[in-house]
Predict the structure.
Amino acid sequence: MPEIKSQHPVAGAGLGLRRGLIDKLMADPPKEIDFMEVAPENWIGLGGKLGKKLRYFTERYPFLIHGLSLSIGAPSPLNEALLLDVKAFIKEHDIRLYSEHLSFCGDDGQLYDLMPIPFTEDAVSYVAARIRRAQDILEQRMAFENVSYYAPTDSSMSEIEFTNAVLEEADCDMLLDINNIYVNSINHGYDAKEFLQAMPAERIRYFHVAGHYVEAEDLRVDTHGDAICDPVWSLLADAYQQFGDVPTLLERDFNFPPVEELLREIRQIKALQADSRQSIGTMAEIANG
């Protein structure tokens, strides 16, 4: 297993565990996979055969959870009952980290999309207070992910300014999604590397990487249903050069290819991580004479 650094809950390259993959992965658990991740809402309270299958994996791999429905930016009251369920799930399965989306997904009801929070100072204060409350309930730190969005509701602040302000005021950590940076850079016309360089290194716990759908030359849709494209691989390599070999999870939510194709992407992540270690080591040797 790769060495785990103090800032990171896991190390190496991981895969999101999805029900469409679970039987194939159980038949021959891949050694290339260093950790896994699930959405807790899909598994909390689930027993029977599926519950046993989840336990099979949580006993064999380090696990992270990435929530879908905390809706941290919503106008409705914070879902404290969900947080208590997640807290119990973390204990039951020895989960290393709980992350969520910096977005909202409903008010009185639940949407099936992640909606953008207005990029305003008032929203920073509101969201940061809810994150602090969530962390108090959990009795541990959370990480929040930069999300893809398509129609911002208010851009009084830039995405960079808003993201950094929330992380600082809430004193929480970050899950940095490399694909979302690229998707947003195309859809909103900004420089992906500039966004990457502005993220707070000390708060980054791990990366997400995934494929997306090309709707048009100036429109990308974050689907998690395709292979990773070359520009995202390139941006991931840039991220390793800037932040080191941060643990990285491959997301694939549908259009599942043969497991071997996913493992090829896992191996490519590992190769880029190794390249960054070698490059950083070489630079350190030069600096030390």
Remarks:
- Residues 72 and 247 are 25 Å apart (CA to CA).
- The chain has nine helices and twelve strands.
- The chain has one domain: 13-287.
- Residues 13-287 form a domain with the TIM Barrel fold (CATH 3.20.20.150).
